[in-house]
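## tool: complex_structure
## caller: assistant
## args:
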Amino acid sequence: MMDSLLQNIRFAFRSLRKSPALTVSVVLTLALCIGATTAIFSVVYAVLFRPLPFKNPGEIQLVRTTWKDLASSFSAGNWADVDRQQRSFRYFVPGHGESFNLAGADAPENVDGARVGADYFAMLGVPPALGRTFLPEEDAPGRGEVVVLSDALWRRRFGTDPGVIGREVRLDGRPHRVVGVMPASMDYAVFGEELWVPTAFSAERLAMHDEHYLSVLGRLKPEVTVFQAEAELRNLARWLETTYPKENRDRGIVMAPFMEELVGDYRPRLFVLLGAVGFVLLIACANIANLLLARGAARSRETAIRAAVGAGRGHLIRQALTESLVLAVSGGLLGVIVGYWGVALLAAFGPQDVPRLAQARLDGPALAFAVGLTLLSGLVFGLAPALRMAGRLPHEALKEGGRSGSRAGSRDRVRNVLVVGEIAVALVLLTGAGLLIRSAIALNQVDPGFDPSGVVAGRVSLPAVTYQSPEQVTRAFQRIEERIAAVPGVDAGALVSTAPLEGGGSNGLVPEGRPLDIASAINSQLRLVTPGYFATLKIRLLRGRTFTADDRRGAPLVMVINQTLAREAFRGEDPIGKRIACCEPGPNGSPNWKEVVGVVGDVRAQGLDQAPEPEFYLPMLQAPAAAWSWTDRTLTVAVRAQGDPAPLMTPIRQAVAEVDPAVPLYNLGTMQGRLVDSLAESRFSTMLLTVFGAIALLLAAIGVYGVISYGVAQRTQEIGIRMALGARHADVLAMVVRHGAKLAGVGMVVGLAGALALSGLLSTLLFRVSPTDPPTFAGGIVVLMTVAVMAAALPARRAARTDPMVALRSE
Amino acid sequence: MALAIDPLIRLDGISRIFHTEDVETHALSRIDLEIRAGEFVAICGPSGCGKTTLLSILGLLDSPSEGSYVLAGEPVATLSPAQRARVRSRAIGFIFQAFNLIGDLNVYQNVELPLKYRGLGAAERRSLVHDALQRVGLLHRIHHYPSQLSGGQQQRVAVARAVAGKPLVLLADEPTGNLDSRNGAQVMELLDELNRDGATIVIVTHDPRYLGRANRNVFLFDGKIVPRGPLDREVA
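## result:
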């Protein structure tokens, strides 16, 4: 058995060496396709399937609240009450992302971190690499000035110094003692964080039920089912609603596997890409099968002789499959190298906001996938030629070997079917790419509601230890604004709590005339702004006015609202002069009314593909005192340059440093760049799918060319006969091209059905384009038919030049 | 089928020279030949004497290197490929030794093929195909494919295909070469009948049994027309 296998392998190598062009082209095609598929699989596996670096990650649930079916967070009070009563979770740990100014010997650096409950690391089941994690007593006011570093921060900032444990670092101006360093597996794992400090809730904070900003991760007890936990959470939500109706009416509590929350949104796009690259491989396999069929036909005499001297059908099939597998394994080995580079490219140039993409690598599962794919590919493209080779009767082949015939059609049937399949799959890919391209075009045409050109923006966080009172905070920000306005080359400058595409907080507000309860509230995005904000971002003023320097503390409270909020709150009435209650209670718990003084255009603040939400703006000088807690005393500096904004970066940093050298300006970049980055994921997958579509088109064209070319070679005598009987060059040309077009046509009918059936998978990825968009489908058909006809035209021209003398020569 | 123009075919000083690398091969040398309408001419000679080359020039499958070829009063040696194809479809019917039917087409479609290239309408084609198949006695096999026919039947279909368009001349290249003697005789009988009905036939053969059926035999040797005497033994 082993001898026979080795003999087959040796023969396969000898045989393949005899046709080096075919061998090299097949191996390279396979290497590229297997490599690309393996690379995409590696990304899919890393993002969607690689277990989270926690103990029994399947037990970890992200628990959050909902309000009127909108996703919301926990308030500290709600978390504490639920945690006290719940029985489903072994751990029920709050946390939230927060940026910290980390001061050291170098310039201050803003670092993304998280405030987490003391049980956070125990809940995740990850021990520290150095030192320890938090003690329960450290998660308390005045005791929480300890910090655990991530491996990334430890390496970058502390040069992997093991002596860092016990060292004091300053976070937002406060001294914190380093107590531990987590392993690299925890880098950016949950909140994209590089350090952790305890939540250390104050008693006052734990009594608050109306500031919803906490994420809660829970580890289910092994004996509790998801169904039981969900039921308990529903009961607790009802309890919260009953106990604190003012803050928790219409509030629910839901949970979902943390993994799902982390990467679930990326699943459709990644699966589409994996499917697309798999389709490309399938087309390549069909092409290779066609090549091997042609080769098999050319070797039919050799096969017949083998059969005539006693080789059985099984032996012939094994021999043929061995050759296919030798090709596949050679392609697969090279494919692993291609895949290695492919993964590196995808991780380096892929959209950075895809979680865990940077951790994609060619690991065990990816290699196992590559091996499986290689063997499967070998079987897919080798089976038909092997069965065809072994299925022929030897005497037929021997007879045919001696003379040429004029009947080619029946022999080409399998090859035709393969090309039809290639065309069908290529159409599916082309229409998919076309839909994403049209979607990208539509996205690029969306008016963001502001003019990003020439605008730079960066974040400034004022440390609480230095800037304790609201007055100190506003005074510092005013000074920053003044300094920035004085920078040469600045056309306009302003401050905003969160600029478009930076996220932001929401607030429930009640228009005058509606019952003053939470049920009447409209959930709206809140932005604190300085008066120059609308001019700086060129947000259109539709009615009334924007803010002036007179809109300060002590003056009548005012607000500017966007179109969507105006429509929702006042339903066609003129909003100017109307009042809205929001943000904090007035004296003695009375509503805190603010007068609408202006209506501005909608801004797509959450992304170009997201519909505008109700939004309102408050003047920074009238910001509620609590707002500085909501914003962590962090604002965005937005500056419109008179010309190119790039040279302004350094002077703007200096302007901020002049106010307080310990306060860094971070996340500094152009708004145009942010807009471009916000589309990075969509652009990347569109680009990849377009590349796959183009490769599919090319492979399909090669397939059509190969089949028609082979057919022309087989039909040389027939074409000669036709010409002898009076066929003109044009007749022959038309006949051959018609055959190619017919194959393409049948393929397109099949492909159209497939594309329509699969279009639903793309629906979540499309923007303002129907998954069955007729122009896209028509475009795909036209492109594919054009390419197929061109591919057929080349051998057709050769056919038309056939010398009719062959009709006589064959005799 | 017969035409008033006489001679139907006139070859004056036709030569055909093939060049392969440094070698120059004279397949035909200064052939002068006239064939009248309604004649049955047999071209014979040993292998390699130029019979097939002459037939291919007569059938406009090949062009002479020198000389003039006038078919039905029109010089055709210098026609463009498209014009030659047009003449082939209208004026010439071919019968090949290996039948050369197209395997993927049935009997009807094979016979219809030259009529389609000629651009005739469907109804006219149908009528001509039926007439031709009736004439060769194969109307009942109209939907069969070549592989379902015997060799003799295939050659009769090839004859039907050649005569369906009522060409000016029928060119037959060893039409019995792939047939047994009984089927060969039947095909020759069919050609006789066609000739009796006025068809002009030029046949290439080296079978002496069929030389007698022709009105005139043309002997070729080394690319030249020669008197019969020196070749008697070779063609016998």
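## assistant note: Chain B touches chain A at residues 52, 55-56, 59, 61-62, 81-82, 85-86, 88-90, 94, 96-98, 100-104, 113-114, 117-118, 146-147, 161, 173-174, 177 (CB under 8 Å). Confidence is low (pLDDT under 50) at residues 229-236 of chain B. Handing back to user.
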